[in-house]
């Protein structure tokens, strides 16, 4: 078990290094001189030189990478040229809305995908199975922004159950906080649940044909115990893997959702940074998202130890 954990942690380190290299290279890959772009059309040569010196672009590239990586490891992601505010401070102010919607959407996707997949496998080739898979196919095919605009029209404009735009932090009250994150979280959760639901169904169908499942039924166990204790637990490894892969789609959905609902989260921060060519802010947000994705997948790998004891050996 300890060797498995150590291997997964060590395997994560080169991935993080590659992520850091690509994130740093962003400034140098994009066509044009970043200093000239940031200085604008009216920028003087002196202003361009000052920007290059402030961003460290006048140094050799290996020195730039070393300084940037050292500062990033210490939590210093640089200063935003547009706002003159540290990048880390801007990210911290925008984390709460994104985390709130993301965690809520992830929980909803799990609560929808796993029961739907299990139910569809248990009632294979019945109307329950077909209805569940129709939902999964539609959720996989529908663009998230189309679903969100229709939800706004129905629940915010017509029924007035939820606000259409904006965000209220949790410090201003849990009720208002929940009302503002419910619609985007439900939309992202529905879209993110589609593929895991199909994987849950196909995996459960294979598991239900195994000998130990037939043995459990022959011993007289109730169907719920057979499905949850014997079948679902053994099917969780591929299901967890699919949820890890669906996180990338969920992050993309959050970027769109924050634009649709005018929520000041990480998604809008990235869009604004790209629009203003704020390279330090782009680098900081992309680095945080990539590192978060790698760490979450590491945690998913470690949960395999609970569901499949064979991995420990």
3D architecture notes:
- This protein folds into two domains: 2-73, no CATH class; 93-312, MetI-like fold (Orthogonal Bundle), CATH 1.10.3720.
- By secondary structure, the chain is mainly alpha-helical.
- The longest helix has 38 residues, at 223-260.
- The protein is built from twelve helices and no strands.
- Helices cover 78% and strands 0% of the residues.
Strand-helix topology:
Layout: H1 2-29, H2 34-39, H3 45-55, H4 61-73, H5 87-122, H6 127-141, H7 144-158, H8 174-207, H9 211-218, H10 223-260, H11 266-275, H12 279-307
Helix pairs in contact: 1-12, 5-6, 5-8, 5-10, 5-12, 6-8, 7-8, 7-10, 8-10, 9-10, 10-11, 10-12, 11-12
Task: Throw out a few tags for this protein.
single chain, 313 residues, 2 domains, 12 helices, MetI-like fold, mainly alpha, globular
At a glance:
The protein has 313 residues and is an all-alpha fold. The protein has 12 helices and no strands.
Helix/strand-derived class?
Answer: mainly alpha
Give the SSE string: HHHHHHHHHHHH
At the first level of CATH, what is the class of the largest domain? Mainly Alpha
Overall pLDDT:
80
Number of strands: 0
CATH architecture classification name of the largest domain: Orthogonal Bundle
In CATH terms, what is the fold-level topology of the largest domain? MetI-like fold
Q: Strand percentage, roughly? A: under 5%
The end-to-end distance, rounded to whole angstroms, is: 6 Å
Total number of helical segments?
A: 12
**Which shape, going by the Cα principal axes?**
globular
Q: How many domains in all?
A: 2
CATH superfamily of the largest domain: MetI-like
Largest sheet, strands/sense/barrel: none
Give the oligomeric state of the chains in this entry, treating copies of one chain as homo and distinct chains as hetero. Answer: single chain
Q: List segments where confidence is low: pLDDT < 50 over at least 5 consecutive residues.
A: none
Radius of gyration: 24 Å
Specify the helix fraction band: over 70%
